[in-house]
Each structure stands twice: as C-alpha cells, then as structure tokens.
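I had to read the description of the data format several times before I understood it. In essence, backbone conformation is discretised, so a fold becomes a row of integers matching the chain in length. I therefore recommend that a typical entry be quoted early in the introduction. For illustration, here is how one protein appears when written out as sequence plus structure tokens.

***
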Amino acid sequence: MLTELNSENFDEKTEKGVKLIEFRTEWCGYCKKQQPELEEMDKIWIGQVDADKEPEIAARYNINAFPSFLIFKDGKVANRFSGMRKKEDLMAEIMKHV
C-alpha cells in the first residue's frame, strides 16, 4: 500500500512499527522505473515522499540521490540505501528489522 507522506503526516506515520519510506521526485527516471516494483508490494505499507514538494523532510534525512530508501523502526532510522531495487531486495531489507 503506497501512502504519500508530507510534513503534516510524516512523523505520525513513521513513529510505530517497521516502515519503508521512498524519497523520490517526479523528474527522476529511476523513480519512475522503481514505481512498478513498489506497486507489486501491495501488502506492505510503503511511504513515499516527493522531495521537490517536501524539501524539509529530504534535508532532515540528508537525501541527495533518488530513489533513496529509509527503513524506520519505531520512529528511528534503522537503515538507509539508494538506487533502484527489486521487490525481493526491498522485502529482504524490511525483514531484517521485523
């Protein structure tokens, strides 16, 4: 389940549990190629932040490449990585923190 995150809901949505967050932009070709992989993970909650619309969130987490991923566990960053990933690779990263 893909959920758009912004400055109003980011902290609330990431404060509990294990959450995968993708930082992306509309102009990023790799982000567009990543989208189908994320859509296939429809049973997993995934937050998406448009870094152009939410630059303060991107700056808070020093995001400077797209797509970039953060895994949150109970409100704290547990892992970070960037670049296109297959859904199997994303699931493996999530499972390390469950």
Remarks:
- The two ends are 18 Å apart (CA to CA).
- The CA atoms of residues 9 and 15 lie 10 Å apart.
